Amino acid sequence: MNYVADILIAEDKVSIYKARIIRYDNEFRKDSDSIRNAVKQKTEAEQQKKNDKAKANENDIYTLKQQQEEYLDPLEEKLSTLKSEKIKVDQQLRALNLKDSIKQVLKIQQTGLVRDITAIEKDILTYKTNTKNKITALEKEIQQLKKEVWDLTVNLSKLQDAEVAKIKPAYDRKKADANLAITKSTADAATARSVYSSKTNEYRIKQQDYFNLIDKEMYRMLTASQKVSCSIYNEIRGKVSGDWNQVTGCVQNIAASAKPYGTNVFNSYCESTFSDGSMLSGYKSFLRGLSPEDEAAVKGGSNATWFEKLKGQ
Description:
By secondary structure, the chain is mostly helical.
């Protein structure tokens, strides 16, 4: 039965590692979805921050224009008044027969008006220039912010893929290790079955030799017991044959039917032998060492009745 246990353990390891690959794929998808969602949320937060800044800049532009209007309106009104006064003074200076004293006063007025007009015009130009520069800078920043928001939108998938790529190698290594283990366990199972087949033939030959020995002895006993009609020949040969059939039937059933689709793993000999816990102790020890996930994989690849009965031993 130890040879059968080697087959079962190797085949169960194949099931375990295949299940692990599926589990790794599921875990990778779950982690990937979590990472993609986190990147999306972070991107949306960055976009909102940039949109808020762009909106604040638009408000600042509106405020600057309002302040400019409030600042310039009185100056432009005053400038208009000064220009009107200068026109009058200029007209007066062009009058004929103007006295020198009056002309001198008008010249002084003209000079003062020119000075005031120049100062106000300079103030207006400076204020407009400064405001325009501020608005231009804000508008340029708004354009850059909108570009960055758009870039975040179109590059979202790339950003997500880049983050997912950071965890992929670890899962790839786990799957590669599991695939190597599957290859090894598959080879181990083939070797175990080959050994099992060889041992089965070996014990079948030994059993036949034993039958031949019994037959030889039984014929001798039959000859000696003919006078008293002794039936021991048939009884002993039948018992030996029956025991052999029970044992080989149990072993062959387990080897062939312990995995899925088998319906009747145990014969009566298996039932009684398993009840005292004496069979497949190594295999039972293997099962006891499995994690809940690995045990579920083994159970999924086993005859349900056989597995539950074996676990119950």
